Known about the structure:
The protein is of the alpha/beta class. The protein folds into 2 domains: 4-87 and 175-255, Rossmann fold, CATH 3.40.50; 96-166, no CATH class. Helices cover 41% and strands 14% of the residues. The chain has a 4-stranded parallel beta sheet, with helices on both faces.
Amino acid sequence: GGLSDVYEPLALRLDGVRPVLGFDRTDDEDEVTARAAEFARRVREARPEAGWLLGGWSYGGLVAQEAARLLAAEGEVTALVLFDSVLPLPAPRLTADEQAHRRFAGFAAYVRQVYGAELRLPYEELAGMSDADQIGHVLKLLEQAVELPPAVLEHQRTSYLDLRGAERHTPGPYAGRTLLYRASEPAPHTVRDERYERTDESLGWDAYCADLTVSPLPGHHLALLDPPVVDTLAELLRRDLPPASPGFSPLPPHHGAAS
């Protein structure tokens, strides 16, 4: 759901083992299925031969699972790899006003606690807006109350929209080999959402992925792709994934490969 350079530490640790192709988040589509279709097309374009390995961290895992379903209909997907991707629990029945309050009250409290600024949110007005308009309006008020870098505001916007997209998405069944590397510690999120506070080992994926293996990682969600946890993750991937085909060549730079 973000920039693919977050995978660089992992890709560097797989250097010489396999090429890695990364895709940045795109605003062209906001649904998981549409993004997955676009990324599956890019995978086919970059590597027409089957035997694909697909993976994603967090929201990216939802996109990867749907892309794996699409590609599996055309050829072999060797493995699907999920890095602490959590399927949100079912939404409680709430009115539009209650939903807006649930989504943003914790954020306003965080801004008050950390920045000492009062974010007065018009919950009734927000209730009648689209997801994009909601977060746009909230961030406009935030920008007026607190001086923050544009990159921070953009991250808040894209994260919010991706969370809403994840909540609208219901994964389809996938029979292929699936490896879930799951964080073993709670993450220090700025605002907690009980829908993502799952305690089941599979994080919900056992209902959709028939051939699922879960491996714990010694860290929290936000630390998985950084040292030292990424060192453990790279070791597990080398252990669990088949070797790359003999004679593979790194992808050209315009494909965004790290190898």
